[in-house]
Design brief:
Structural class: alpha+beta
Number of helices: 6
Shape: globular
Helix content: 25-40%
Strand order of the largest sheet: 2-3-1-4
Strand content: 15-25%
Distance between the termini: 43 Å
Oligomer: single chain
Largest sheet: 4 strands, antiparallel
Order of helices and strands: EHEEHEHHHH
Length: 153
């Protein structure tokens, strides 16, 4: 990027554990979030919020235009997946589900998105991840096919 390039791109990324299994345990979820934060920092991007549930994670990232979102998410999932398995955090083989959701926001919405991500535990007492995800897709007018949303074996 040239010296005259200025931007603020804010993206909420949502991705799930393979087959939506509840494998992210409260004993190590904070360590996982710290690990993911390190990946984002090492890629010279800015993590504004991270939180989730045992079966999925939400991130809010300030993205530089030189970074491809797909590359960043692939690196987060690949590295954190290997790290979780190396540490033997889960008694089951841990894998992230293929794909992710990405939703953009303007600067004026950041406080609300950060609060929303921070309140994942209480939010999901009322709504499942599947309901939440479909709601995002509809709200942002993202075309989707139901059969590809939540693969289960």
């Amino acid at each position: 990027m040239g010296a005259g390039t200025f931007s603020q791109i804010y993206i909420q990324v949502v991705f799930a554990v393979k087959n939506r299994q509840s494998l992210i345990h409260p004993d190590w979820e904070v360590k996982l979030y710290q690990y993911i934060a390190g990946i984002i920092r090492n890629k010279d991007q800015k993590l504004l919020a991270i939180n989730g549930m045992p079966d999925h994670v939400h991130l809010l990232v300030g993205l530089r235009p030189s970074c491809r979102l797909s590359d960043l998410v692939r690196e987060i999932k690949k590295s954190s997946n290997a790290w979780i398995n190396e540490k033997d955090f889960s008694k089951y083989k841990f894998e992230w589900q293929e794909g992710y959701g990405a939703f953009s926001y303007g600067h004026s919405s950041l406080d609300d998105v950060i609060k929303y991500i921070g309140r994942q535990k209480e939010h999901h007492m009322k709504k499942t991840f599947q309901e939440e995800y479909v709601e995002f897709l509809k709200k942002y007018d993202v075309p989707y096919k139901q059969e590809y949303l939540f693969k289960r074996v």
